[in-house]
Write a structure and sequence with these properties.
Number of strands of chain B: 0
Structural class of chain B: mainly alpha
Chains: A alpha+beta (about 575), B mainly alpha (about 325), C mainly alpha (about 325)
Oligomer: heterotrimer
Shape of chain B: flat
Structural class of chain A: alpha+beta
Number of strands of chain A: 22
Helix content of chain B: over 70%
Largest sheet of chain B: none
Number of helices of chain B: 14
Distance between the termini of chain B: 7 Å
Number of helices of chain A: 17
Largest sheet of chain A: 7 strands, mixed
Strand content of chain B: under 5%
Distance between the termini of chain A: 40 Å
Radius of gyration of chain A: 24 Å
Largest interface: B-C, 48 and 40 residues
Shape of chain A: globular
Radius of gyration of chain B: 25 Å
């Protein structure tokens, strides 16, 4: 494999200590270095993989075939993978459809349906090599044309896929120069963005340099479907995975069975090696009931263990708790163009009156990590540690006085608990803290479905942001001028410039320095109170082997087996 | 009697028409249309759609036609048996309704099976021996159990039976196929309240009858006590409880909402609750109409039973 | 019900309503408005003891209800910890912390359970009593209009009542609250929709029956205004069964409010409320050592409802004996 031009520089930085070994491994993998090799170069032993070319973990010795795995999660519909709204939809689909790349729990990206990727020196042209010998459920073989069809579909603005928020697919579009009825600029796909070179290779010609192509191809909405796909998926799921859909009843159950024959009668050969489970059953349980269901033995594993139920989980005999730190967080963001938040002194007062570490301790106890209001996490490779925001109630009061609120100020924060009641707990803790500075914060809880209707309109809202492997990804989607998920209406050309600069920089040390500037701008603008990075816990019976916790709650069940 | 039934059925149809019109009008607002869009495309999806695409989607779903024409179309569909499609669960409403009603009917069957003999017996015993220690105990227990809200009994029973002793599964989602053990918790929760209520009503009716003139006369005449009770007192005392049992059908539909939601039992109450939260209009309308049917039907049965059982009333 | 009792009831109910529903508008007055209610509750209790002396059932019931009323009006003045504030340095979240400081321990978020239980009864009592009263006013009004005026009024009011009665109660609550949003005032509307038709039927029946009585016809001959007749002549004569029904209905409404909050449709967090406490403890209480978090609110709400039920039973007993 031809080494990428930037790889030696990366090695140098590892040697002289300006990047950590974890960061090296991540970036090397992004550049197309096989994960095992990257680990070796870093001098670490790689987590045992089934095979150096496969992205799945190696099964433990004694793995047995057969069995039905019962999982308790909220069973959702399966319409169009590119427009999936919930993670549960993707979890039900992952045994059937697959990704181009797989992001593991260690945040390292590994090849799945594409077996290698090579960026040009300027990171604008990427050559993807499609894995050979991958069989579809209808007997055809996966070709580059199929992959190209999918990528073109994801980057088509008319489809409305959230994939457009990812840099890779956004970079495959351009402004057409027109404006729609809402006054927003209309985008259209680039003419020669996706180029098929031969039966198993394709090239992406991006409009801007993008580092995270491999990672973006592992995001939860980028499941690869057969070009004959028409929504809903549940009617005719044709994929490359080892399972097929036997039964789907929304809010009730979803049954997946292992495929042995293709639709035209031949034997189905799965490219990914040995798969152990015969059937995977998803049973619908509301989030708060999943632990109780496991305790009764109705299910063998659950989607997520909320932090309030950890004690209960510990008391269940024959169950094990798995956890992982994530970049998932709560953003209590203020809209910078709405009174009273348009006055930066008010925002700074709110930020100063809050005590992030105390909120984290209250909600997650010893787990999780405290954050410092700039939406880049320690698990991100380009994280630059800024000094934590110190609580300063007197300073907050002073700022309020300067802004003209001598007798305090009344604010309201809206929270939807879409990720769990911990969001409300955090807001209430915030309320108690800012009260001392004279800020009367009313916490308004709305049902989760209602929250999604108003989340971008409320002046002060608490939104849960999901885990993203790279720090720049969330910043690009949330704080860039005009980004579709810019709920705080933050717009600073200097910030945009610095962010674009950082995104285009591959050199890790230089990137971190650039991120320092980006982070500082965001932190100083006091746009958001972002108290912590939450951990994710899952619960499974000890009979279930190979079930790992993933920061984005992606279930990878191919190598799970039951004893 | 026949007159009563005909009048009641006519009234029921009129009420159902009014209710359906009301519901349709309520759910016709913009907020509910957008809710339906968000539900199907996701919050992000709706945001990224341009205005013209959103209108196109609405037209595709037929949500832009004028109110009366949509109502008329819906009414026609109902009369043909087509109740629409559930936007949340993506199956036909008639299928969903049939299955959830069947599940709730199974639960109701067992509730009535146990409740009727137990509460009538206890109530009669208490009423017969009014003032005795047996009566005191039964009355106190009855008034206690009707004072505890079913949510509290539900959680307590889960702690005791499911997690403490492990005899029954904690939730009734029937993941391993239908089993009676999974029904035990919702059954007990419903029974604890309903038996207490019916016992109190039966006891009150029984004491009133036992204190009445003709019973005392019969006893004084020297008729054997047991014959007095069985032939005369019971017949009169049970009028009110029997009519209440029919009304209990209606009350059960209410109680079953909480119990099914808590225990995740796939019945009518849970379907209604999910539909109301989600804004699944077709399901909500169909479910409400069914609920109205059951309510009026149970009132009708109750009144009919009263007429049949009470010799003094002739309609 | 003589004027003394009415005045005492008003003295208790009005400040409680003001305190719970309109506290921001009260400002500084808020800390004093409940003071007159405390002696009023005690006076009510004494009155009840005297007049219901013969029925120990009613005495027990009124003791329970007055206990909670007393707790509700004196909550701001008791030495309680803040019910909403987690006491983080003293106990960790999810902690149990029994001891001198926490008589009943703390809940999963570190808030004092005893304090939340006592503060919780305020909301339940206020919204429950207000909702039932409004339902009575509306229902009695409708019943009087229908029964006394007859004709088209009667048809219309009866039909409206029948439409509302055709819904199972929970279905009605869910529909109304989902439509109007979830707040205490909407609960009042929902309770009115479900209870008023029944009350209306009762009052209508009584009005129809009384219409033919002598004293009504005498008033008509005198030329009194129909409204005056309804309120002054008719209503006081039907009060016996109505009071019993009122107590039972208060019990039902309390259950309804608690259940609605449990389902997420009722009063909104964060302020303490028994239904909310039961909901929050529903998963934690699955562990034996945390079951106190459930037992405290469950016992409280059960005792309140028991109180109402016992009063109703006792009053019925007493009137049956007369």
């Amino acid at each position: 494999m031809i080494e990428h031009a930037l790889l030696p520089k990366l090695c140098d930085q590892l040697r002289d200590g300006s990047i950590s070994r974890r960061e090296f491994i991540r970036f090397a993998a992004l550049l197309g270095v096989a994960a095992g090799a990257a680990y070796a170069m870093a001098g670490l032993s790689a987590p045992a993989m089934a095979d150096s070319t496969l992205p799945f973990p190696a099964a433990e010795p004694g793995a047995k075939r057969g069995g039905k795995l019962r999982i308790g999660e909220m069973v959702a519909r399966m319409e169009d993978p590119a427009t999936y709204g919930w993670n549960e939809m993707a979890n039900q689909t992952r045994p059937i459809l697959e990704y181009l790349t797989l992001v593991g729990p260690d945040n390292v990206v590994r090849p799945m349906l594409v077996e290698s990727w090579k960026p040009s020196a300027d990171l604008k042209t990427w050559t993807l090599q499609v894995r050979s010998g991958v069989m579809w459920h209808n007997g055809e073989e996966l070709t580059a044309e199929h992959v190209a069809w999918n990528i073109r579909r994801w980057s088509d603005p008319a489809l409305g896929s959230s994939n457009l928020g990812l840099s890779t697919f956004a970079a495959l579009t351009e402004y057409s120069g027109e404006k729609d009825s809402k006054g927003q600029a209309v985008r259209r796909p680039l003419k020669n963005g996706v180029e098929v070179i031969d039966s198993h290779a394709l090239r992406l010609n991006l409009a801007k340099p993008v580092l995270s192509v491999a990672e973006d191809c592992g995001e939860f909405c980028t499941l690869v479907v057969h070009p004959s796909f028409k929504p809903p998926l549940s009617r005719n799921p044709i994929g490359t995975g080892p399972y097929t859909l036997a039964e789907l009843r929304v809010s009730d159950r979803c049954i997946l069975k292992r495929i042995t024959k293709t639709t035209d009668g031949r034997d189905f050969r799965y490219w990914g090696g040995e798969v152990y489970l015969d059937e995977i059953h998803f049973y619908h349980y509301e989030q708060e009931n999943q632990t109780a269901a496991l305790a009764s033995g109705s299910v063998d594993a659950i989607y997520e263990l909320p932090v309030e139920q950890i004690e209960l989980a510990r008391s269940i005999p024959g169950a094990k708790i798995l956890s992982v730190e994530t970049a998932q967080t709560l953003c209590c963001r203020m809209q910078v163009d709405v009174k009273p938040f348009n006055d930066i002194r008010v925002r700074r007062a709110v930020v100063k009156a809050a005590d992030n570490a105390a909120i984290k301790k209250l909600v997650f106890g010893e787990h999780g990590l405290a954050a410092s209001n700039f939406h880049v996490a320690p698990v991100h490779p380009e994280y630059f540690p800024l000094p934590p925001v110190a609580r300063d109630v007197a300073g907050a009061k002073q700022l309020l006085r300067e802004a003209g609120y001598d007798n305090g100020i009344d604010l309201e924060i809206v929270v939807g608990n879409n990720d769990g009641p911990w969001q409300q707990a955090a807001c209430e803790a915030l309320r108690d803290q800012v009260k001392e500075a004279g800020i009367n914060l009313a916490v308004t809880v709305v049902p989760a479905t209602k929250f999604w209707e108003i989340w971008r309109k409320v002046p002060f809202g608490a939104t849960s942001w999901a885990h993203r492997p790279l720090g720049t990804m969330a910043l690009a989607q949330a704080y860039r001028t005009g980004a579709s998920w810019n709920e705080s209406h933050f717009s600073d050309p200097e910030f945009d410039q610095a962010l674009a600069d950082a995104e285009a920089t591959f050199d890790v040390a230089a990137r971190k320095l650039k991120m320092q500037k980006v982070e500082r701008i965001l932190q100083d603008a006091a746009v958001v109170v972002q108290p912590m990075w939450r951990p994710v816990f899952i619960l499974a019976s000890v009979k279930v082997h190979g079930y790992q916790a993933h920061p984005a709650r992606q279930m990878q069940l191919n190598k799970v087996w039951l004893s | 009697m026949g007159n009563l039934i005909v009048r009641r059925v006519a009234q029921m149809l009129l009420i159902m028409l009014t209710v359906s019109l009301l519901l349709f009008a309520i759910f016709d607002s913009d907020q509910f249309r957008e809710k339906a869009a968000v539900a199907e495309l996701g919050g992000f999806g709706v945001a990224t759609l341009s205005d013209s695409d959103y209108h196109q989607w609405l037209e595709k779903k037929g949500l832009t036609a004028p109110f009366l024409s949509r109502y008329g179309r819906w009414l026609g569909a109902i009369l043909h048996g087509d109740l629409g499609q559930s936007t949340e669960k993506d199956i036909e409403v008639s299928v969903l309704l049939r299955e959830s009603l069947a599940n709730t009917a199974i639960l109701a069957f067992f509730v009535f099976l146990i409740m009727i003999p137990v509460s009538l017996t206890l109530g009669v015993l208490a009423g017969m021996n009014a003032g005795s220690p047996l009566d005191r105990v039964i009355s106190i227990v009855a008034v206690f159990t009707t004072s505890i809200p079913q949510i509290a009994t539900a959680v307590l029973l889960t702690v005791l039976l499911a997690l403490g002793l492990g005899w029954v599964p904690a939730k009734s989602a029937m993941t391993d196929g239908w089993s009676f053990r999974a029904l035990v918790l919702p059954l007990l929760t419903l029974l604890l309240y309903d038996i207490g209520y019916l016992v109190r009503m039966t006891r009150a009716a029984m004491t009133e009858v036992m204190a009445s003139q003709y019973i005392r006369t019969a006893v004084l005449k020297g008729l054997p006590y047991r014959r007095v009770i069985l032939r005369h007192a019971l017949r009169n005392a049970l009028i009110v409880p029997v009519t209440l049992i029919f009304l209990e059908l209606n009350g059960l539909l209410s109680q079953v909402v909480v119990v099914e939601v808590f225990f995740q039992y796939a019945g009518f109450g849970r379907m209604l609750f999910d539909a109301a939260n989600f804004g699944d209009i077709q399901v909500l309308q169909a479910a409400t109409l069914v609920a109205v049917c059951v309510a009026v039907g149970s009132q009708l049965l109750s009144d009919a039973a009263y007429v049949v059982l009470n010799p003094r009333v002739r309609v | 019900m003589n004027s003394r009792v009415m005045m005492l009831l008003a003295l208790v109910w009005l400040p409680l309503c003001a305190y719970v529903m309109f506290r921001p508008a009260l400002g500084a007055l808020g800390s004093y408005v409940l003071l007159p209610a405390i002696p009023a509750v005690i006076a009510l209790y004494v009155l009840a003891l005297r007049s219901w002396r013969e029925s120990w059932v009613a005495i027990l019931g009124v003791s329970l209800v007055c206990f909670w009323l007393l707790m509700a009006v004196s909550a701001p003045y008791l030495p309680l910890l803040d019910p909403n504030k987690p006491l983080v340095p003293l106990i960790t979240p999810g902690g149990t912390g029994h001891g001198a400081l926490f008589l009943l321990g703390s809940d999963m978020r570190g808030r004092d359970v005893l304090s939340r239980t006592i503060w919780g009864c305020q909301r339940v009592l206020v919204w429950g009593i207000t909702a039932t009263s409004v339902a009575y006013v509306v229902g009695a009004g409708g019943g009087l209009i229908g029964g006394y005026l007859g004709g088209w009024w009667d048809e219309f009011v009866s039909f409206a009542g029948n439409v509302l009665l055709s819904f199972p109660v929970m279905v009605l609550f869910i529909l109304v609250l989902n439509l109007l949003g979830q707040s205490g005032f909407n609960i009042i509307i929902a309770v009115t929709c479900s209870s008023a038709p029944v009350i209306m039927r009762i009052v209508r029946g009584l009005a129809l029956d009384a219409k033919s009585r002598d004293y009504i016809q005498a008033a008509q001959t005198r030329g009194e205004h129909p409204l005056w007749i309804m309120l002054v002549e008719l209503l006081p004569n039907v009060r016996g069964p109505i009071i019993v029904d009122a107590c039972l209905r208060l019990g039902y409404t309390t259950v309804a409010i608690t259940t609605l909050t449990f389902l997420g449709l009722g009063l909104q967090p964060p302020d303490p409320d028994w239904g909310l406490m039961i909901k929050e403890s529903a998963t934690a209480a699955l562990l034996w050592k945390y079951s106190y978090m459930l037992i405290a609110p469950a016992l409280s709400v059960s005792s309140l409802i028991l109180g109402f039920n016992l009063i109703a039973d006792g009053l019925r007993e007493m009137s049956a004996r007369d």
